[in-house]
Description:
heterotrimer, A: alpha/beta, 19% strand, C: alpha+beta, 2 domains
Amino acid sequence: MDSKLCITALVALLLSVPAAADEITVYTSYEEDEAARFLELAKKDMPDLEVNMLRLSTGELAARIIAEKANPQHDVIWGFAASTIVTPQIEETLEAYRPKGIDAVPKEFRAADDKWFAVTGYMAAFCVNDERLEKLGLEKPTSWKDLLDPKYKGEIVMPNPASSGTGYIQVSSLLQMMGEDEGWAFLEKLDKNVAQYIKSGSKPCHAASAGEFAVGASYDMRAIKNIEEGYPISMVTPAEGSGNELEANALVATSNNKEAAKRFLDWTVTKTAADAYLEWKAIVTIPGGTMPQRFLDAGLPQDTNSVLHPTDFKAAAEDRKDIIATWQEKFER
Amino acid sequence: MSGAARTAARRGERRSLPALTSDRGIALLLSAIMAGLMLVFLVMPVAAILLRSLDTQAGPGLGNFTATFADPRFWDLLVNSLTVSLLSSTLAVGLAYLYAYALQRSNVPLKPLLRIVVMMPLFAPSLVQAQGLLLLLGRNGAFNRFLGFDLDIYGFWGVALANTLYTFPYAFLILSAALAVADARVYESATMLGARPGRIFRTVTLPATRYGIAAAVFVTFSLSVTDFGNAIVIGGNFSVLATEIYNKVIGQGQFALGAVIGVVLLAPAIVSKLLEKRISSRQQAQMTDKSVPLTTRANRMRDLVLSGYCYAVMIVFLAIPGIVATASFVKLWPYNMAFSLKHYAFDVQNGTEPLWNSVYVALATAGLGVTIATVSAIVVQKFRTPLSGPLSFLAILPSSIPGMVLGLGYVLAFNNPANPLNMMYGTLALIIFLYVYYNHAQAFLIASTSLKQISSSFDEASTMLGGGVVRTFFKVTLPLLWPTLLGVGVFFFMRAMVSLSAVIFLITPETQVAAVSVLQLADRGAVNQAAAFSMCIMAIVIACLLIVRLVLWLAGAKSVTLIR
Amino acid sequence: MDIRVTGLTKNFGSTTALSDVSLDVPEGSLTCFLGPSGCGKTTLLRVIAGLEEADAGQILLGDADLSRTPARDRNFGVVFQSYSLFPNLTAAQNVAYGLECRRWSKPDTRRRVAEMLDLVHLDDQRDKLPAQMSGGQQQRIAIARALAPHPSLLLLDEPLSALDAKVREELRQEIRAIQQRLGITTIMVTHDQNEALEMADQIVVLNGGKVEQAGSARALYDRPRTRFVAEFIGSINTFTVQDPQTDPHLGTVRLRTSQPLESSTLGVRPEAIKVLDDGQEADNVFAATIEKATFLGNMTVLHARLEAAPDQPVVFEAHGPADGLEPGRKLRLGIAAGDLKDLA
């Protein structure tokens, strides 16, 4: 560890003065490493802005925002599932805002009332551990349907849709493409092969990467990053079409420091930010960028739309509460 | 008022000093401050839980309880919690009893090493046990991968085992103390009456240590039942009440559920408090200063068997941190075992800040904790004010409140705009106070015991020579007491570095601490980074122990206990 | 059966606790091991009990060698100084303990426990825990517990020293009475000479891990073989004699003894020194001057200086107030030949 850093940190702690003028609290569901990189860049552009960030999974953050409604602690919601931000109890807490340069973001990725806008997104993907498959003598699954094969019994881990946004898009996309009845019946069959439902959307991929399980239902970027790390896994986008989600940013109406909050939101649609998204995200709504080679190497097509399930975001948002309730009743142990 | 105090008070009047500078005034003032702090940081949070649990949308009532109890999931989780905690508690106490017995009652070689190794779980957050177990016994853990086993540790047994390892040192410390005292004559009487070793153990050793066993069972059970770190890491689909609180209260802000479970978890605490009174009054009759200490006799067979047991246990306790350290130092566990420091880069949210937050919090907790515990002890032991009675009760109350429940109380009490101290919410200061009061009971008891041992005759002598209360404390009591107080400080420091369940509710983006970082990293599946973070915590705690040991050694105070 | 101990030696590290100790304890007798602290008396008792293992020597019960028998199989009863009752068991349960170890039947155990509690007059305390009883009661229970399994030997390790004087006095007589009634061979360790004199059939005086002398109280008092024994049991004046074997004299006075002397140390009990009236004679007569008189009520202790040997003060006693024997008074003291004890 850098000892100079430690000393600085300690001194800073000891001397820390109460809230600097431009200090905001941001709630996010971006992955830690993504968020850390984006914040680093934001700080470079706005050195005087102090950003405190709380990172929680989608479901948890939603519950937290609702629970704190009487006394909100945050100024900005950042990188948060669009299907969840439209929950009335959350939407109520937001204030319409059109950041400078918002026109770079196509209309379909913005709320009609300007209460939120989405610059990035993610999609469901399987992390498949090749080493473990070989050891067990299994073939690589290519679709959700493949996972019903009893050979995979106990070798599949999935995120819990109640807490994980990734988990929710997996479930909701299956229900959308198969219809309610068939969809739930499919999930029930799948449940027989699932070893664990995990709170986080990235942990299933980590678990598969560590070789604890053969298949981890997760999302695109986690798979790409773990492949880069050197884990013996490959990414599979399910043949049925990949469930996907937009990550929305919004201004909180109760913010005590709206000017600073707005500055931050403005930054999220700048060119610097957009370039960073391209490095870290497979789905970027600001047009004009090209996908890095490493994403392609990991198995993504140049045009992500070709593997996406055409998600009805509105339905996904409206049905969220019911779907999660049904899921918990059926599968939560 | 004692005669000495009266003399002092009269002297104060004669010099016609303002009331507050007289000893009586100081006594009252300090008592009031201590009582005030306890009210705010101990009574109010507990009260907040009780009130919140009765606060429903339809007004005060038992609605939250009926709603929670009507949910079959609650009962499933309760049963899970009870069974897994009972099992791990039984295992921990059973294994620790034999281990403590071997160290206190036999001639096992390398006792200091055996003693320190099983303390390892105290130096890191609880979930390190589960991390290590997974790396060892997971589906792709070292045993399965490299030794060809086919184990699946996820679930009930994983949690039970992890909690057994986590609570073992707590049980060991209690049982070791219980087994350390014994009157040889009772043992010799039994031998002379024809009892064989088995009967002696059953009729003498066991009854003499039954209160220690009861205390150990309670402590380990309470730790297990409120620990969610291990359950989250290794539980798989096996959920317990603590994980439910973690997920539903921290994740989703369901405070009513949290308050109800908090009250449920307080119940055993109250029962134990009532039992403790009986226990402590009966325990006194066990030993007197006329007792003859038991000496260990040579018995090669016994020593051989117990050595085998102890070394086996030691290997387990070395293997857990050992494998976590290994995972933190290799490029890509378990595929690429080349040495690498990349997991120590901490390129995650807030980087290493939580670690330094923790060091700062732990140091502040040690300083504040020692001060508060010492002043409380003095107020209760030395000053006879009307507040002494209630204070002495409150001072030891935290020992029976699970950390998680107290932490929940802090959120409910302080994250409330109606509370004038609301501004403390979201600050490290509140976390420091939580740690201080969570660990207050033990520190208070240590300080009280030391005060009783050393100072009554000294401060009478000092008072007779004209020294006031304050002067006596700084000139006489403190110079005699400081090694013990330093030990208490270490105790606070260690607990503040590793406690997880107490602070989990108070964590905000600005007040992240290291133990919570480990949990979040592990929760996300960042195994190697979580391991590296755990290693940093362990390194800091061990460094602190070594530094303080060195200071004490240089000062010639070698007998101070640092690990409690 | 007699207990015979031969050649017992016991070392703790470099210190010798027992050095070649041999003695006999006759069947049915009460033998006291007497000596100052550190003399080895407790170690000797513990070796006999089997709680310590001797480095050399034998312990025989009748003809059986017990040296290698573990303590629990020796069937000896033992009572320690205090606090040796099982704190978690009631009085009756304590007494029953040894019987349970021997797998007595329930009714037999019950009968025996009642009998034992009756013996020590504590039948009304049977359900009390030790902490609820007085020290004296606890020791009675300890005795009952030790006696219950019909031990072949009863060992008492300073059983009375933790009690206050009055209770100690009572229990002394009671222990002796029980011992005589049951006729049980008993060894008691004590540092209190009065206790030994009052209770013992045989006293074994130990010093520095060796047996100084063994015998009845009377024999030890009358015929102490060493200065240590003479001084430990009762009080005695000691004199250094010149030329003991050829021409024994003390200062300028020739000594008349009943037997030829061997050593140069001579002892005389205070009560053997008589104040001679004018004209009265004795085997040995010394002119002396009173130096100090201490009135103690029933007697007066007198310190005097002998003219024959002014460097060797002498202490003796007179009944009652001893009028006229004030300091400075010159007088004649007489000692019978038989009262001069030759001490090694």
